[in-house]
Amino acid sequence: MKQRKSVLIINPVSGIHNKEKLLLFISTYFAKNKIECKIVKTTHIGHAIGLTRQHAEAGFNHFVVAGGDGTINEVAGVLIEFDHVSLGILALGSGNGLARHLKLPKKLSNALDIAFGDEIVRTDTGLLNGKPFFSVAGVGFDAFIAHRFSEMKNRGFRNYVKAVLKNYVRYKPQHYKINLGEQKFETHALMITFANSNQFGNNTSIAPKANISDGLIDLCIMRKPAAVAAVFLAPMLFLKKMDRTRFLKIYRTNRIEVETSLPAFIHFDGDPYILEKSKIVFEMIPASLNIHV
Fold this sequence. Notes:
By secondary structure, this protein is an alpha+beta fold. It folds into two domains: 6-118, Rossmann fold (3-Layer(aba) Sandwich); 131-287, Tumour Suppressor Smad4 (Sandwich), CATH 2.60.200.40. The chain has eight helices and 16 strands. It has helices at residues 19-33, 47-57, 69-79, 97-101, 108-115, 141-151, 157-167, 227-239, and strands at 6-10, 37-41, 62-67, 86-91, 120-128, 131-133, 136-140, 174-179, 184-189, 191-195, 217-222, 248-253, 255-259, 265-268, 271-274, 279-292. Strands 6-5-16-13-8-9 form a six-stranded antiparallel beta sheet, covered by helices on one side. It has a six-stranded antiparallel beta sheet with strand order 12-11-10-7-14-15. Strand 8 (174-179) and strand 9 form a beta hairpin. Helix 2 (47-57) runs parallel beside helix 3 (69-79). It starts with 5 loop residues before the first strand and ends with a strand. The model has no long low-confidence stretch (mean pLDDT 93).
């Protein structure tokens, strides 16, 4: 077996954790367990992409991310280009959708044990117009809220809920053309979510049966309930029963085309971007990432 060469990439601004105490704890853990691991910090959005590529090309084969889904996305998006590399996760973000799906512990010492352990699961990668995601991606209301949330000074679930409540009533469902190969149809939807995992973040779920290692995506088309109905439906996300309501339709497939009108936002693992093309093409890369579990 190739000797492990480890690097920990930490996002100092993810989540609400005290990063100085975090770094002290991690350094103490390394010393106690005689672990050799380089530690690097990101300084801006997109920085983890360059750091990952730099270290992968330098022969590092074990990457541990201390951050949220966005930072994990940047690192993992590079790692799928390399063979014989693995990813460990210390979930420090606001939603931690991927970590929750994989049932990774929140307690840091336990998370470190797993991230530096030997058990691996091979997971799928989704591509939207060639850009990878690993947990969920989408267009519509959730992408719009991801954009609003990114503009807020403070993170955390409470502020995410504030963004939802402030914008839900006035958000208008968009028109979409869906091509699933054998099925083609048009619809108006609150949002369209591509669920690779069963987590929407913060232990909510829009696709409870989604499996990150089955080679398929759960395409979730959500109609907009009236505001009063939405209040009563919200707990269904936490109960993982939203798929039982009449407002959600799920299709399981490995290739999709969705067409919408511009301007529009799209999100990849919670990080928002401006949609550049009206047509979104989804593809799946099965068993493309090794994650420590």
